[in-house]
Amino acid sequence: MEQYLEKPGGFMGSNTGYPEALIVLLGAPMDLTVSYRPGTRMGPQQIRAVSIGLEEYSIYLDKQLSEVSFADLGDVAVPFGNVNESLERIRQVIERVLEDGKKPFVIGGEHLISYPVIQAIHHRYSDLMVVHFDAHADLRKDYVGEANSHATVMRKTAELLGPKRIIQVGIRSGIKEEFEYAQENTHLFKDRLEEAMPRVKEIVGDRPLYISLDIDVVDPAFAPGTGTPEPGGCTAREIISAVHSLRDCRVVGLDLVEVSPVYDPSERTALLGAKLLREAILCFG
């Protein structure tokens, strides 16, 4: 695993060594298949950098990071220009983290990085469920002829896991064929998060759960720093509440993707990403 890691991590409150950690934070700075505005490869380091501006204590959960054993291992060294090798390195690192009994939390990077993480986790949890927060369905069979794309990641995941194992929340964009595919193969909740979350928890039940959170589920008024902003999304407070609502679920992994700092001069998108990661660590650690 070590040969594929670079750039030491620095997320706030991460003082635990790898052997003792329950949760392992990893960056996956891959940005090779984005369809509109590039830049998400800078997301992991920017989220870490701004995290020091936040408190380590959550007023929502009455809990602080010192109460959770987590380590930030830095970024996976993905080879620029090589999609397949990048995905394979991410998968191998996650496999090792899981072998060591850790829970992986991954910072993207583009949304395609979720697929190798889910592959590795599904190998250990055959009944895995995925909750997918996003503005976009990401259910295309291919994008301009390419099957590996951030626009195809949930289609690939659905084909891996089987029908009705993905729950999609906050979706407000996609082509007609994606929504037709979703009717047969996923649970798709359009737009409103707060109305969907009680039903989401019912569907998940006590099965192992992976959370994939694309920051563009949030309205660009609150999170402009992303590659494909889509108006009409939830507020920052609503996505925090949605994460909290899954606190009692059996979460075995998580990713937060598509933060693109170049479009985020105020740093508010990266700050929201850092806060969501803090809340997730406290919820599921």
Keywords:
8 helices, nine-stranded mixed sheet, alpha/beta, single chain, 285 residues, globular, 19% strand, two-stranded antiparallel sheet, Arginase, Chain A
How is this structure best described in words?
- With 285 residues, the protein is α/β, with parallel strands linked by helices.
- The protein has one domain (2-284): Arginase, Chain A, CATH 3.40.800.
- Helix content is 33%, strand content 19%.
- The chain contains eight helices and eleven strands.
- The longest helix has 17 residues, at 83-99.
- The protein is globular, with a radius of gyration of 17 Å.
The sequence of SSEs as H and E is EEHEEEHEHEHEHEHEHEH
Task: Give the number of domains.
Answer: 1
Largest sheet, described in full?
Answer: 9 strands, mixed
Q: What is the CA–CA distance across the termini?
A: 23 Å
CATH superfamily: Ureohydrolase domain
Query: How large, in whole angstroms, is the Cα Rg?
Result: 17 Å
Summarize the helices and strands and which ones pair or pack.
Layout: E1 5-6, E2 23-28, H1 43-51, E3 57-58, E4 63-64, E5 70-76, H2 83-99, E6 103-108, H3 114-124, E7 129-133, H4 153-161, E8 166-171, H5 176-185, E9 187-190, H6 193-204, E10 208-214, H7 236-245, E11 250-257, H8 268-284
Parallel strand pairs: 2-5, 2-6, 6-11, 7-8, 7-10, 8-9, 10-11
Antiparallel strand pairs: 1-5, 3-4
